[in-house]
Amino acid sequence: MNRRPAWLPAAGGFLLAFTNVVVLGGVAYNRLQPPDSVLALTERELGPQWSWMWRERENSGMSLRLEYRVESARLDRDKLAALGFDVAPPLTDANAENHYRRMLGRDVLLVLELDGPARARSLEAARSLLARQERESDANPGRDDNAQRLQSARQGLASEEQAASRLFIVDAGLNQTMLREIYPDRAHYAIVHGTIRPLVMRDGTSSTIVGAVTAVDCESIHVPLEFRATFPVDHPAGGMAAYTVWPEQIRPFTLQLAFGRRLEPWILSVRAGTI
Amino acid sequence: VTPLSRVEAQARVEAIHAFTLELSRLETADVVSLSDEQHRRIDDHHRMVIASLSRQFDVDRDTRSKQLSWGMRVASLLGAIALAASVFFLFHQFWGRFGTLVQVGTLIGASMLTYGATLWVRTQDENGYFTKLAALVAFVCFVLNIAMMAEIFNITPSDKALLPWAAYAFLLAYLCDLRLLLATGLLCITAFIAAQAGGLQGLYWLDVGRRPENFLPPALMLFVIPLLLDQSRHAGFAQTYRLVGLLAFFLPLLVLAHWGDGSYLSLEPTTIEHLYEALGFLSAGAAAALGIRRHWPDVVNTSVTFFIVFLYIKFYDWWWDVMPKYLFFLVLGLTALLTLFVLRRLRSAGV
Q: Do residues A95 and B127 make contact, with C-beta atoms less than 8 angstroms apart?
């Protein structure tokens, strides 16, 4: 057997201990009081997590998926420039397509807004669409797809009112303090880590550039055992296995989700029923 | 000279066998003739040396023993992979039934316990087969330890996790002479350096694969390490460094030779692709030449393989659409023959 330095085995034990101390120290720091924000989310904002990897009952853990929407209008060219993207080349340039296609995502801070102006705008847009479809239907009673258009608009409004997530990504930045100054309401605005990249949107002859959110780092929220007993979502045994959850299987719940100093979330409480 | 490692001990045993065989040939050809007394003294001495080395290092005494060793090595590797997978699935099967404290305790305890078990097995197992098995399970437990803690506490995914994993893989590799873990550690450190290099450009670390050039600096670093730090005490470690270095160098070149959009260079994608094609040919040729000069068969084989892959892909681009298929494959076959001739000439010339 090779002769090895005597300190090598001890170094292994130290490495294991040190790494775990660093990880747990980071968790403790993140959870120092008070949290950066606490959002009261419901089954609309937290969907069941699924994974192709596990068959039923092979993974006993449970996670929830953060359901968010993006208000792209706020993530415009100026915002992208402020985030460090080179968006100077006009979209009409011959080389623009190549330039923007090759851009990759950047790690940024994203602002999540719960049931705020973005949701109100979305609700208003659904109502306006239904009103317009009703007007057009009244003006053109013989049109073949009137019923279909009306039904689609009504379903859109119903989803917006009762089912769709009220959590919107409304802003992005690189400085947490500055973002918090703009969004001081810690019960409705959370700041999280995520990734954004420029996306060229083409609509006929016109083109615009917007920020596409490619990832939110805290999309998956682990549910500790103490909350699972009272967790009011019908999950099959096996937790995260891939399965379809029908709307009638999801019972209303309210969950207090805290975001700590490192902007990492954890569940504070869960109770059945709406707010 | 007393051997310090199992590798050196095995080399000594093989030198003894080679000496015995060659001496017998020389005697048959009447080149040399030893008396019975001299034969007896040489045989006794060799028997004593082999017995001593066998006790100390559990070396393979003969060809049959060597064949069995290979079988045990394969069984040990497959067993280690299967056991590691079993630990992974076992934890996932039951972890949801425990509270956070028990989960964390189990994860840390499993890491510590398997590490302790590896150290203990190492003292009991001179040939290293069981040590290797234990080491691989210990490594998987540590990966699981950090990955599951990140999941339990919703920790933001980070490339920094690659550092302790790499450090632990290196530590176990050097403790147990395990090339698989050395390669794992090298891959972890390559990914970490590449992610950090991408981070300097503001890129999200998981996008590192979309800029293959990030892998080139760590690849060169890995290739150079065995030149700077002596690895002769660990069988196959220098080759592993060079092999992983070459793979981390040639694979990005291969990708960039067909995907110019993935480059940092502000040039037309086709220009970038031609540049990397040329670099691929030149570097594969240069590495093969270096391998021949330094007597590194691993470098020669890997470089020649990549040279041929670059060449075949180029042939495909040029001729697949314009040539009849029989002619295309004939050209490929003739190219392989040409490569064989060139290599044979080099070998005969003793380069």
A: no
